[in-house]
């Protein structure tokens, strides 16, 4: 049994590698990554956590020849595709970079999937495809225009995979829409370590807690929520990783969408307070104007994943805060 983890050195991909190894101890796992938003340190940490000597190839999925050589070399039973740029703001400023990278990379993988009749394809999608719809989001909700080119690339890749699955009935595709993955593996050896200034909330909180950044700016204090700050469905990255293993085990013919969330909303202020309480550390913050494009409240309806994947997120906000800080603290020591 062999699986390809494309983008496996990134935040979600690296954590999923650990869950895959645990569930399939004898499987051949191959990681490819172009290391644009991750470092080789993560590969070393993955080897330390799993004890594997990991089969890793640095390659860009947009390099069609390199992708062909990879599939000539290995026989895969499934592909898990995490590789893609994911910075929302950057995608607005540089849309072509996102359309070329995220879509061409997916097309090159799908071509090999069809050529070698690889039956299982798990795609890393995002709740952002729901656009400015209404929570709780259900998989059957119509997709409104995503609020960014990044979100559009996810919606387009979903559509490509749905059309290809329709034309090839032997193909089994799961499209996993993540809500807000945060936290880190319990070892503290891998976590969310963006190579550039963080745009997501939790890495910003941990950098402020660490003293690397002076203050957390909370975007918006006047939303129609319980404390005026925006609400999101934060989910532990290991729950998301286990959701991929469940998707692989329950994948069925056709293309099927699943929300990976907890079904619970947490405000920015609630998350900050939980982080401070769990870790006994202050996070100085200032409430400023809203960030353009942000929604007041985004959280999932998770019934389909619970029944279709036999999977349910189990870790708490406190677990997420503790594990995120545990990872960040270890970075101080390095
Ligand atoms: C969460 C909340 C911010 C930073 C995006 C993508 C989504 C997924 C997750 C990839 C919002 C607030 C943030 C800060 C803040 N990515 N915030 N100060 O925007 O919900 O989702 O990342 O798949 O596709 O759209 O996540 O972490 O950026 O923001 O107040 O310094 O935290 O306004 O309310 P978001 P986020």
Explain what you see:
The protein is α/β, with parallel strands linked by helices. It has 2 domains: 2-184 and 234-262 and 299-314, NAD(P)-binding Rossmann-like Domain (Rossmann fold, 3-Layer(aba) Sandwich), CATH 3.40.50.720; 201-231 and 265-298 and 323-333, UDP-galactose 4-epimerase, domain 1, CATH 3.90.25.10. Helix content is 41%, strand content 18%. The chain contains 11 helices and 14 strands. It has helices at residues 11-23, 40-50, 64-73, 88-93, 95-115, 149-167, 201-210, 237-249, 268-279, 303-308, 317-333, and strands spanning 2-6, 28-33, 55-58, 78-81, 120-126, 172-178, 180-182, 216-219, 231-232, 234-236, 254-260, 266-267, 285-288, 297-298. It has a 7-stranded parallel β-sheet with strand order 3-2-1-4-5-6-11, with helices on both faces. A 3-stranded mixed β-sheet has the order 12-9-14. Strands 7-10 form a two-stranded parallel ribbon. Helix 3 (64-73) runs parallel beside helix 5 and helix 9 (268-279) crosses helix 11 (317-333). The protein is globular and about 55 Å long. The protein starts with a strand and ends with a helix. UDP-4-deoxy-4-formamido-beta-L-arabinopyranose binds at residues 86, 88, 126, 128, 178, 180, 199-201, 204, 216-219, 230, 232, 268, 291, 294, 298.
């Amino acid at each position: 049994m062999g699986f390809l983890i494309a983008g496996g050195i990134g935040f979600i991909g690296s954590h999923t590698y650990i869950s895959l190894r645990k569930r399939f101890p004898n499987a051949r796992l191959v990681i490819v990554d172009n290391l644009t938003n991750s470092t080789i340190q993560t590969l070393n940490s993955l080897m330390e956590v799993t004890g594997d000597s990991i089969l890793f190839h640095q390659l860009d999925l947009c390099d069609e020849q390199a992708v062909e050589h990879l599939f000539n070399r290995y026989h895969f039973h499934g592909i898990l595709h995490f590789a893609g740029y994911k910075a929302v703001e950057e995608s607005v400023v540089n849309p072509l970079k996102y359309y070329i990278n995220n879509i061409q990379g997916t097309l090159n993988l799908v071509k090999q999937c069809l050529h070698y009749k690889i039956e299982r394809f798990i795609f890393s999608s995002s709740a952002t495809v729901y656009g400015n719809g209404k929570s709780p989001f259900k998989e059957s909700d119509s997709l409104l225009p995503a609020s960014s080119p990044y979100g559009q690339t996810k919606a387009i890749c979903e559509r490509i995979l749905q059309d290809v699955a329709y034309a090839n009935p032997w193909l089994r595709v799961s499209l996993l829409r993540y809500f807000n993955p945060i936290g880190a593996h319990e070892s503290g050896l891998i976590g969310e370590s963006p190579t550039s200034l963080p745009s997501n909330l939790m890495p910003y909180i941990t950098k402020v807690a660490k003293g690397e950044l002076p203050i957390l700016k909370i975007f918006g204090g006047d939303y129609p929520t319980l404390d005026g700050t925006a609400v999101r469905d934060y989910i532990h990255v290991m729950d998301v990783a286990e959701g991929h293993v469940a998707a692989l085990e329950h994948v069925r013919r056709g293309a099927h969408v699943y929300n990976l969330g907890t079904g619970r909303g947490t405000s920015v202020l609630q998350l900050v307070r939980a982080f401070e309480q769990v870790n006994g550390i202050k996070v100085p913050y200032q409430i400023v104007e809203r960030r353009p494009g942000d929604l007041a409240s985004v959280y999932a309806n998770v019934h389909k994943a619970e029944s279709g994947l036999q999977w349910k997120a189990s870790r708490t906000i406190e677990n997420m805060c503790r594990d995120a800080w545990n990872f960040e603290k270890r970075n101080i020591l390095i």
